[in-house]
Amino acid sequence: MSAVFRNTVLVRFKHCDAAGIVFYPRYFEMLNDFIEDWFAQALDWPFDAMHGAGHAGVPTADLHCRFVAPSRLGELLTRELRVVKLGQSSFTVQVRFVGADGGLRLEVMQRLVCVDTGKIAPRPLPEPVRQAMAQYVDATLAAPGGLGV
After folding, report:
1. Which residues have a Cβ under 8 Å from the Cβ of 114 and sit 6 or more positions away?
2. Are 62 and 146 in contact (CB under 8 A)?
3. Which among 10, 71, 83, 124 could bridge 22 via Cys, Cβ 3.0 to 4.6 Å?
4. Which 8-state DSSP code applies to residue 36?
5. 18: number of Cβ within 10 Å
């Protein structure tokens, strides 16, 4: 059984539109924060080390999302990450945002690529990072390009 990386985020005023629901671009900021948390907390390669001494980055190459239900001001969302595909320099993750009631709010398939920030060209993931990512691979998920739902 594969591991799932989880944490929570509080929907703040800054995330919401006039109706008090998350304005969709703010989900992408929360998504990026979550990926950054995963790298720091689970993969032991925080963005400051990656972008600094590591001379690397993990930009998004492909992103598919499905907005299922609105998230409201003050709501606590649980974010869940599983790896769908793990290559030498790229990886695809499924991320889900779930409300306290258990209802799905947002589902994302995102492919990221490890790049050399000097050349802006793909480079292999460091082997310890790749091994740490392997714990999160869930072979039962759909192939990249769709949400598998």
Report:
1. 56, 57, 58, 89, 90, 122, 123, 124, 125
2. no
3. 71
4. H
5. 6
| CA distances to 39, 45, 141 from 128, in Å | 12, 9, 24
Query: Domains in the chain, start-ordered, CATH in brackets?
Result: 5-26+43-134 (3.10.129.10)
Instruction: Write the CA distances from 6 to 31, 46, 133, 136, integer angstroms.
Output: 12, 17, 14, 11
Nearest residue to 132 via CA among 8, 38, 30: 38
pTM for the model stands at 0.92
Task: Note the pLDDT of residue 2.
Answer: 87
User: What CA–CA distance (Å, rounded) separates 133 from 94?
Assistant: 13
Confidence band for 149, pLDDT divided at 50, 70 and 90: very low
The answer to whether residues 92 and 85 touch, using CB atoms and an 8 Å cutoff, is yes
